[in-house]
Amino acid sequence: MALARTVRKAVAELLAAAQLGVGVSSACEHILHEVEAHLFLHPEHAGAQLDFRNAFNLVSRGVAKAVLTRAFPVVGPYL
Q: Are 12 and 22 in contact (CB under 8 A)?
């Protein structure tokens, strides 16, 4: 937990444009408002909710470790 707190801000900054899971308060509410606003501005678009079963197993753990270690060297020994 202490390690997560150590890199939380850096991870949030690195992933800011692509995710709302790290360092974002009320992320679900934020997503809902963003989707509603988009659909209001683009009524010809549609929304879909997908549930990818076991999606994390589709990512190479070796590649994930390499990316994380390069971006946040402090976590390397713990991966």
A: yes
Contact 35, 20 (CB under 8 A): no
**Stated pTM of the model:** 0.48
pLDDT at 78 over 70: yes
Query: What DSSP assignment string belongs to 44-75?
Result: T--------TTGGGGS-HHHHHHHHHHH-GGG
Per-residue pLDDT of 30-69, as tens digits, reads 889 989 999 999 999 998 887 777 777 778 889 888 988 8
Half-sphere exposure of 7 (CA within 13 A, CB side): 16
Query: What does 9-34 look like in DSSP terms, one character per residue?
Result: HHHHHHHTTT-SSSS-TTHHHHHHHH
